[in-house]
Amino acid sequence: MRAVIQDRYGSADDVEVADLPEPVPADDEVLVRVRAVSLNGSDRENLTGSPGYARLGGLRRPRHPVPGSDVAGTVVAVGTSVTEYAPGDDVFGELAGYRGGLAEYVATSPRLLARKPPALPFAEAAAIPQAGGIALRATRGLRPGDQVLVNGAGGAGGAFVIGLARHLGARVTAVDRADKSGHLLRAGADDTIAFERSDWADQRDRYDRVVDLVAHRSPYRVHGALRPGGSYLMVGGRTRVLLGTAVAGPVLRRLTGKRVGVLMVPQSRADLEEVTALVTAGAVGPVIDEVYPLEEAPTALARLAAGDSLGKLVVTVP
């Protein structure tokens, strides 16, 4: 089979498309014929090996040589103990702990998958799992009129957070590069901030919730932008900021009543089905910037690393 191979950390120049043996599913796995894969910020981290926590799956080289976690495709074989899926079932999901999605076939656990709605195209289905799960958890509990800021909103998952927050009645300020402001407004943001021109953390008592997809500020710096009772949720960013946020969060909450912490997003089929129901109902949806064939996956990864995409990058597998 054709597959993307990454045998070391580095850049898209260190990735190639080559032939690999077709995987054989274990007794408790399914074999999926991949139709589409979407790229996430975590794929950029796994490509470069940075921040440091990206190397938890392999200190010197990736433990899984085939990248890609958000997939959609069709089950073609099942292990002897698998009863919930059968060959011919269309599925999608995030292959956390497995990766291997950027290939013609991938063997994975059925618990990581959900049934793809028939009317949902494979490319759109592949764009939902990680971004949709983060957005669902990051916006849970929002009320109409809440002021929400999304930092790093122009990347793979930002549009999903914007869309869900707006669906819940919040007013959204989106932060990214100045040249992405039009995209952010089209995605549903009420206001935008260009980070080259202004630092959102300079504002005081402004937001009920901050969703930070690219955190690099101290937790002591960001909590001042929150209204009383507000919450700051770190999703991705530098290792030292993650550790600092995890340690300082409980202290700041006791001192100020403001919640500062790391957003935990467990693998959840129920979450995936919930956000997908919103997509199929037309309430929210992923924003796809560009679609690439598998043979051009290194180009897609290079764009992901450059950070200039306006939404999701998707790789299709013929």
Automatic annotation (TrEMBL):
Residues 10-315 form the Enoyl reductase (ER) domain. GO terms for molecular function: oxidoreductase activity. It comes from the Bacteria. This is NADPH:quinone reductase-like Zn-dependent oxidoreductase. Gene3D superfamilies: Medium-chain alcohol dehydrogenases, catalytic domain (3.90.180.10), NAD(P)-binding Rossmann-like Domain (3.40.50.720). Residues 43-68 are annotated as: Disordered. Pfam families: ADH_N, ADH_zinc_N_2. It comes from Promicromonospora sukumoe.
